[in-house]
Amino acid sequence: MKRHVWHSDDLVQTSFTEIVLFLLFFALILLGTQPFLGLVDPSTGTGVGDVSQEGTEPEGQPGSDDPEPSKPPKAPADNVKQELRVFISGLVQEKVELGRQLTIFETEAKQKAQQVEDQNQIIIILNDEVASLEEILNLRQQRVNEIMEEIGSKIIIISELEMEIEELRAKINWPPIMILDDDAGYRFETRSAEISESFGRLLLEKTIPKLEMLLDQFGESISAIEVVGHTDQQQLLPPLDTNLDRGLLDIMLGGKTVVSELEAADNAGLGLARAAVVANFIELNSSKARAFEILPLSGAQLITPENRRTTSFDTSAADRSRRRIEIRLRGDGEIIY
Question: What are phi and psi of 5, to 5 degrees?
Fold first, then answer.
């Protein structure tokens, strides 16, 4: 069964038709019942109210024997019809006005509906954009989580590498030792602490660059540079007086003492004199080394090239392998008293 959809025009048309039919029906009833209501005489067509009082004759004109018949009154039905026409005309005008107002209302309603539809479309577009942004946000959040996981993994790897580095550092021979021995060209004349031209060239071209590389590598853990002079067991003859007590300090402080004037009375003094001269040369020619304390020390004839104490006593032995300068990097360890 098809359902009828009512519109505003249908309602107006139905109400107006019912009103007109009702009024016409009412007028017909009124006209048909006038004889019974005493409004019209069916035989004469005159209203009952026009009959003279009982026992009297109608008045005629003077001098006339026959009375003049009276004019019948205007029928009430004509008045009703006229009123109905006026009333129906008013209803028609009201219908037209209602139709016009309904047209305006429907136009405004359609405009409102279009505005609502436009707003709904905008809402749909905005919802789609929000959904897209949420999807992008979720993807970026996933990427952030992945990056955080990667960072966590790399932090673990870095921690493991740091532990391995610490283990490797523990295995490194500390401090690094540089050997400047007689056979490699770092040769002093007998009983002398003076640096020859070839000796100085080796210090500038090989020793100092290597020392600076070690300082770059271990600089944060280094507190001082030790320069240690070693000699063989050959006794210095004949016994001489020494001027090292005054001359070495004057050279280290940049005084007027000449290295060739230094006199050592024994191997301990000779080793110290040679160490002081090399330490002074390094300090003058290396800005990186000057950032650290450079300490001259003497091992004399007491320490072998294998870093062992001498176990024999032979003052006549001339062993070139034991005549050397050692450069050691002292670690920044805790001092205990």
Answer: -100, 120
- pLDDT reading at 251 higher than 80: no
- pTM here is 0.48
Residue 331's CB: how many other CB atoms inside 10 A? 12
Distance CA 300, CA 314 (A): 14
Tokens for 185? 């060209």
CA atoms within 13 A on the CB side of 316: 0
**pLDDT (tens digit per residue) in 146-166:** 999 889 889 999 998 888 887
* Long-range CB pairs of 2-10, under 8 A, 24+ apart, other chains included: 8/102, 8/105, 8/106, 9/99, 9/102
Whether residue 39 has pLDDT greater than 50 = no
Interval 59-72: pLDDT, tens: 444 444 555 555 55
Separation between Cα atoms, residue 330 and residue 306, nearest integer Å = 19
Are the C-beta atoms of residues 326 and 299 closer than 8 Å to each other? yes
In tens, the pLDDT along 79-99 reads 877 887 888 888 888 888 888
Q: Spell out where 206-323 has E strands.
A: 222-230, 293-300
Distance, first Cα to last Cα, the chain: 113
Best CA proximity match to 304, nearest among 277, 275, 318, 324: 324
